[in-house]
User: Fold this.
Amino acid sequence: MAVTFLIFGLLFLLANNALQEFGKVAMKTNTQQIKSLSESYLMDIARERVQKFNEKIAKYESSAAFVAKRAGEIYNRMDEEIQQSGTYPDLSRSIENNIFYTPKTLPCITAFWGSDKISEKKNQELRALFRLDADLETAKFLTAESMAAHIITLSGIGKYFTENPSARARCFDLPPASVFDLRDGEPVTIYTRTPGQGNLPKITQPYKDDVIDGFIITATAPIVDNKGILRGIAGIDVPLADISRSLKTDSNKKRFFFFIGTDGELMGFPQKCMDFFGLNIDQKAFKHSKDTLSLKLTDSSIPEVKKIDQWIREDKKPFFRLTVDGEPLLLAVARFSQAKHRLVEVMSEREMVASIRRTGEALERSDSKIKYHFLMYALAFFIFSIVCISEAVRSVVRPIQHLTAFTRRIANKEYHLRSKLYRNDEIGDLSIALDIMAKRLGQYKTQEKNLVEDLSRQGRQLKQLNEYLVYFEESERKAIASELHSTIAQSLGIGVSKIRSLINREDPPQPSDLEELQAFLEYAVKDIRKIMYELAPPILNDFDIDVAIEFLIEEINEKKGTDFVFHNAVGGAVGLNKALKLTFYRAVKTLLFSILEQSDAPQAGVEISAEKTQLLIRMHACGAGIDTEKLMCLPVGSSGSHLLSERMRRLGGSMSTRETEKDCVLIDLAAPVLTDHPQE
Assistant:
């Protein structure tokens, strides 16, 4: 054993010395390589970012040129555009800013602020420019990173398309033209303040946007007619805050970039650039789009930063170092291919060479770990035998502990668990038995839960049925009282009035007076018998439902002069309780009278049959004006609050209607024959 330790110790000393020598050489070589590659690394990043930015600017400018060209074509053939223009929405004046707007619901916002009234000439120009709405939407779609596509004409017409809700809302809250005119903003004045600058698209300086907070850059193109007259501009707006975000390639907080224009003005930058280079912007001084951001590195409060402005613009060298507040920086400059803009990639030199420091620290940690691991491996050699014996014992004890814990969890009603012990011995058999027990207990628990939920649901249904019966009973009482008042009470009241008149008269009553009084009393008796028949038809007490319905149809044919047909397909007696029998009877009566009301000369047939444990009444009616929806919404009795179909469902039956052909419907009423209710 001692010899083994001696051999391990010698091998450890040789390996440790070799590793330390390798670390020294690696540190020296790594430092030289990283410092030499830092320049090309940053330059590659700067060139790649400039290439992407060139592509984006070209896309913005081409989209603006596309809209400007389409607008110029409209101005070239204005008369033809006016004749071909269709119906377009009218503009209404805003009370707040005296600007005319199209409705807010339109995707493209159109505004006019050129005068207090829209003359006929301006109205024709507006109508012609409505053909640009689709082009603005296309330009915005082609530049998904942009915020909006718009045009501003020198005649005071503006069209704006954006998917930004905040920007859309702010468009309707612009200041009046007397306070600020959009034609005085940077996208327009870039062509109007220096005439003769050509018709090529341009990139504006950063300026305060009128509809969002913060600065914005616009790729703008002039709208020129065939006479060379400037009519306005087309623009693609890109918020300054989105430029850095759209070109960010990684999450390295120690690296950022900015780009400057031809005269050294900052065109795009992150906030960390402003803070780090000692630049400050007074946001309150920028109110409208005429307020451009003319900030340069020479405006910095740090002398070192002022110096690099000239180096960058004169292209003295593409890569240089700068120290700001004790922080060494590496700066790589790349120039745009078409414009004279320049992009500067900035990164902390400490961050760039941080890998060297981390390599040294890693080597030191490795040396300590090697020594530590040597001791651990030596101890592991002696512990290995003890572990093997322990594992042999635990291979027997562990399954028993596992099954014990499993049974405790089963006792806590965790029936979804399984032991998952796959063995071919007695412990495996016990595990299978416990799994079967847990599975069956889980099934019993699920069945118990379903039974409880079913009982709860039936309880709620019973409560609803009780409430329905109470309400229906009350509504029927009100209906009976109303009918008694409108028929019997009036007839008896007239009779009482006649008797009082005869008593107060001096001459004796004449036979005609008594006959008239008799007629009123007979009306009252007739109405009483009618109500009694409606409340409890005697035929339902003496006969089955098939006989009662056949009698009902014969009675309707006799009174209404109809020719309704009845067919009885029931072989024997129908075992319905009184509630279902009365419901079927009234349902058939209500449906037949409703058909008579909807159609002048209907034809109807009623067939009653029994299928297994259900009684089925099928009605087939034809006639102009019969509506299946009205039939499904018929009320029960005189109450309009509960539908006939709903009552059939509550009694365990069903009601359905469907249109078989033009002006013909099929109505099915079904209910169980065998019920728990006693026959009455």
